[in-house]
Design goal:
By secondary structure, this protein is an alpha+beta fold. It contains two helices and nine strands.
Length: 170
């Protein structure tokens, strides 16, 4: 049996704590999207918890890179080909704690569990996306919702997500 030095024991303890923290996560958020449409996968943290240089990775579990933001820019070279040109972060919101991902032109194959994590930290969130078939109507209503209305609703949802940590509503 090998005896560890105190510095080795401390390193082991730190490693174990990091493993525990990285495996613990809050309940998964469930998002519903419509095939061919846009969906926002939410991921927010208090801005004070983020490092000065934010590197964020969105994965579709178990191990598909959906979006990588590193060194202040997106890195499409690390992105799975099926997501190229369909994802983006809200860059002006990143350092305010909003790391949510916009996914365009949703495919049936996009359904599943996603993980947003900030590298070199224990910060992560999980989102489950379900994809539904588009709703087909026989008649076009004169009161059908416009793209501008959808954008306003998405903006309102993003505002609520950003304000939630401020009021401890989670």
């Amino acid at each position: 049996m090998r005896i560890l030095t105190s510095s080795q024991r401390l390193r082991c303890l730190k490693f174990r704590i990091l493993l525990i923290l990285s495996s613990v996560h809050a309940s998964t958020v469930h998002i519903h999207g419509e095939k061919g449409k846009v969906v926002i996968l939410p991921c927010t943290f208090p801005a004070d918890d983020l490092p000065s240089k934010v590197n964020v990775v969105w994965n579709k579990l178990p191990d598909t890179n959906v979006h990588v933001f590193s060194n202040g820019k997106d890195d499409p070279n690390l992105q799975n080909a099926s997501f190229v040109g369909r994802t983006r972060l809200f860059r002006e919101e990143i350092y305010k704690g909003n790391l949510s991902l916009r996914l365009d032109d949703i495919h049936e194959s996009d359904k599943g569990e996603y993980k947003c994590f900030v590298s070199r930290t224990a910060l992560s969130k999980r989102v489950t996306l379900t994809v539904e078939a588009p709703v087909v109507t026989k008649e076009k209503s004169s009161r059908s919702s416009s793209p501008a209305l959808h954008l306003n609703v998405m903006c309102l949802l993003m505002l609520i997500l950003m304000l939630t940590p401020l009021f401890n509503l989670t």
